[in-house]
Amino acid sequence: MAQNFNFELVSPERLLISEEVQQVVISATEGEMTVMAGHAPTMTTIKPGLVTVKRASGETVRFVVLGGFADITPETCRLLAESASTVEDFDKAALQRRIAELRTEIDSNLDHEARTKAEEFLGHLTTLNHVLS
Amino acid sequence: MASLKDLRNRIASVKATQKITKAMQMVAAAKLRRAQEAAEAARPYAERMGAVLANVTASISGDDAPALMRGTGKDDVHLLVVCTAERGLCGSFNSQIARLARDHTRELLAKGKQVKIFCVGRKGYDILRREFPNLISDRVELREVKQIGFANANEIAAKVIGSFERGEFDVCTLFYSQFKSVISQIPTAKQIIPAAVPADVTVVDTGAVYEYEPDAGAILEDLIPRNIAVQIFRALLENVAGEMGAKMSAMDNATRNAGEMINKLTITYNRQRQAQITKELIEIISGAEAL
């Protein structure tokens, strides 16, 4: 039996979830990671993607998170997201608009660094789009 | 002396005004509740952000800190971000913020510093434009925005950070009104660049060494702009709550004043009506006596 730990998902607008969970899968910048109780203290940034939460009851909930960072200690995992919502509530049309906007932005004259950044972000968003559709 | 008809008109118009102010008060009360809820909902994020920030900064040495935190090492050019409401009719709410910003500007100018003003909200712009037409570098209106979201704050933050990166200013101060209660809003100035680590946050020492992914510097680099956005977001939310609170009490006052005025006018009206009746009676009686 897996041990439970406290998980919090907070966006600037509200607190989405704060409860005991079994495990959380987050898409960190350096690859996906699964957080379980007793995880080594870690601080990581998050790329846009899915967060899968396995509740204490065993059911899973999925959230769409657009960037942010996670603060993980052995007893808690706090996820501060720039914007977060459940998969059901997520506005896919807005995501598509954002992707289109980014594409035009990349096509316009950006300097090299900004361009790489935007392209990376676009990559995350399109992956997310594929996963969702 | 006003005639009876004039008085009647006057009373009717004051009554109409009273209805409007009463309605505005009720609308403000409803909006205030929503604004307070929004401010409440945003609090956990800001608190945790502060805690995490304190944690990360504790582990990083001074020279590695990103520019937004260190500042440019000078304080010659100041950017004042003045957040005010979009609408008036809320007592001294807007003018208080503007006054604080104005005093600050004068002080800085007297010291020979350069000042740039970034207005968020129309009212502040209207007030400050009169005195410092040349200092206003940019402005944002949130008139169309019904419910202030994080995206609005992010936009403002992006502008501020962009202009910092272009080296257009050294110190950035945020002006807004702290929402204390419905009847008291305190205009506040808060420095956001170079970022000061919130002193009121206690660093939770878990005793363990954090692993950073990517390294602490990169995280901080990502964190600071976000923190600035959060602070602006918080200021905007507090402002909305404060504006609604101020509007509520201003409209409450107005309603009460209108009530007083109606009372006074009604008394005058009745006295005059009595006087007229008496006069007419005297005329009739003296006419009858003469016969």
TrEMBL record, chain A:
GO molecular function, one term: ATP binding
Entry GO CC: endomembrane system; plasma membrane; proton-transporting ATP synthase complex
Intracellular or extracellular location(s): Cell membrane; Endomembrane system
Record flagged with keyword rRNA-binding: no
Membrane topology annotation: Peripheral membrane protein
InterPro entries linked to this entry: ATP_synth_F1_dsu/esu (IPR001469), ATP_synth_F1_dsu/esu_N (IPR020546), ATPsynth_dsu/esu_N (IPR036771)
SUPFAM superfamilies, sorted: Epsilon subunit of F1F0-ATP synthase N-terminal domain
Coarse class of the protein's main subcellular location: membrane
Residue ranges constituting the ATP synthase F1 complex delta/epsilon subunit N-terminal domain according to the UniProt record: 5-84
Record bears the keyword Transcription: no
Record-linked PANTHER family: ATP SYNTHASE DELTA/EPSILON CHAIN, ATP SYNTHASE EPSILON CHAIN, CHLOROPLASTIC
Subunit: F-type ATPases have 2 components, CF(1) - the catalytic core - and CF(0) - the membrane proton channel. CF(1) has five subunits: alpha(3), beta(3), gamma(1), delta(1), epsilon(1). CF(0) has three main subunits: a, b and c.
Protein task: Produces ATP from ADP in the presence of a proton gradient across the membrane.
Record family assignment: Belongs to the ATPase epsilon chain family.
Name this protein carries in UniProt: ATP synthase epsilon chain
Species of origin: Nitratireductor aestuarii
Lineage, highest ranks first: Bacteria, Pseudomonadati, Pseudomonadota, Alphaproteobacteria, Hyphomicrobiales
Name of the coding gene: atpC
UniProtKB/TrEMBL annotation, chain B:
Compartments it resides in: Cell membrane; Membrane; Thylakoid
Membrane-spanning residues: none
Keyword Disulfide bond attached: no
Protein's GO biological process: proton motive force-driven plasma membrane ATP synthesis
SUPFAM superfamilies per the UniProt record, alphabetical: ATP synthase (F1-ATPase), gamma subunit (SSF52943)
Cited CDD domains: F1-ATPase_gamma
GO molecular-function term, one example from the UniProt record: ATP binding
Topology term for the membrane: Peripheral membrane protein
Record keywords: ATP synthesis, Cell inner membrane, Cell membrane, CF(1), Hydrogen ion transport, Ion transport, Membrane, Transport
Entry-linked InterPro entries: ATP_synth_F1_ATPase_gsu, ATP_synth_F1_gsu, ATP_synth_F1_gsu_CS
Gene Ontology annotations for the cellular component aspect, listed alphabetically: plasma membrane; proton-transporting ATP synthase complex; thylakoid
Subunit details: F-type ATPases have 2 components, CF(1) - the catalytic core - and CF(0) - the membrane proton channel. CF(1) has five subunits: alpha(3), beta(3), gamma(1), delta(1), epsilon(1). CF(0) has three main subunits: a, b and c.
Family annotation (NCBIfam families): ATPsyn_F1gamma, PRK05621.1-4
PANTHER family the UniProt entry points to: ATP SYNTHASE GAMMA CHAIN, ATP SYNTHASE SUBUNIT GAMMA, MITOCHONDRIAL
Similarity field: Belongs to the ATPase gamma chain family.
General function of this protein: Produces ATP from ADP in the presence of a proton gradient across the membrane. The gamma chain is believed to be important in regulating ATPase activity and the flow of protons through the CF(0) complex.
Name of this chain's protein: ATP synthase gamma chain
